[in-house]
Amino acid sequence: MLKNYIKAARLRTLPLSVSGIIVGAFLGLEAFYKDPNAYRGCFGKSTILESEIFWLAILTTIGFQVLSNFANDYGDGIKGTDDNREGEQRMVSSGAITPKQMKSAMLVTAVLSLFVALLLIYVSFGKENFGYSVLFLGIGIASIVAAIKYTVGNSAYGYSGFGDVFVFIFFGIVATVGTYFLYTKQLNLEVSLPAISVGLLSTAVLNLNNMRDRINDAKVGKNTLVVKIGSQKAKIYHYVLIVGALISAVTYTVLNYSSPVQFIFLIAFIPLFLNMITVGKNIIHSELDGELKKVALSTFLFAILFGLGQVL
Q1: Are 143 and 62 in contact (CB under 8 A)?
Q2: What is d(CA 310, CA 312) in angstroms, rounded to the nearest whole number?
Q3: Exposure of 19 in the CB half-sphere (CA atoms within 13 A)
Q4: Mind listing the pLDDT tens digit for each residue in 167-217?
């Protein structure tokens, strides 16, 4: 049974989910390097891996992602959306996990994720910043609601073409800018540029998923953006997402330029541009399944390289 829950958690999606956290943490570290007195105590011994904030943010995000995957499995399973889907087998639709069992798993995951989020908020803000604590508690609750409502319920936004918007906001803007704020207690508009990059690349992964499932989704009434605009426009949309991510990251780097090593993140765009070629030539939708992993891991690589480029 545990094996089935691990499958439902879709571990291959986790690197993508933490990409925004990694970028936000590195940018917070960059701020610390520029003005250590202003951000004293943010990083322990001045490294990300020794930061409690970093690891609690990672665990919180993983919890929200697993919850989203459980909810997606449950929502699509009970609606029959996954009965003839391409790619990985889903646990509820296959009968490996009953709907009742999955709902229980969702509840447990939501409670554990919220508990870790509360620890993160306390470590970040303590008792001195009550307003910030309330704000981030609200963001945590909103993340839980968004994770569940993607496919669960009659008003599931994943069935009306708004999934892309929520992925962009939560994977990109909230994760990156939010993590940066946890460290610095300040907003920096320039941080929104790499946040946009992460958000666009994360949306590209969802777009590939929806391109792969377009025919089946159309049959069962799951009106994703790809179903609404069609395959050819979805390909153009995919190009815009990746190129937009590149432009946004380059813009931030130019505005904060100090060394050529900052452009090391361009390495991550090599497989992404190869993906664009594959998508452009694609005819059989099921063949896009392998491209999901390529773009997700490239986004994760981008996060690491971009962050390292800023602090080295």
Answers
A1: no
A2: 6
A3: 35
A4: 999 999 999 999 999 988 889 999 999 999 999 999 999 999 999 989 888
Contact predicate 64/142, CB 8 Å: no
* Radius of gyration of the chain measured on its C-alpha atoms: 19
**pLDDT tens digits for 202-259?**
999 999 999 998 988 888 888 999 999 999 999 999 999 999 999 999 999 999 999 9
Burial of 200 (0-12, 13-18, 19+ CB in 10 A): buried
Q: What is the C-alpha to C-alpha distance for residues 66 and 9, in angstroms, rounded to an integer?
A: 5
Query: Residue ranges of the alpha helices (H) in 10-129?
Result: 14-17, 19-34, 52-79, 91-94, 99-125
Provide the token pair at 190: 């320039």
Pull the structure tokens for residue 297: 């891991």
Residue 39 · residue 198 · CB < 8 Å: no
Nearest to 53 by CA among 14, 26, 16, 13: 26
Q: Is the full-model pTM beyond 0.85?
A: yes
Burial class (CB in 10 A: 0-12, 13-18, 19+), 189: exposed
What is the distance, to the nearest Å, from the Cα of residue 56 to the centroid of all Cα atoms in its chain? 16
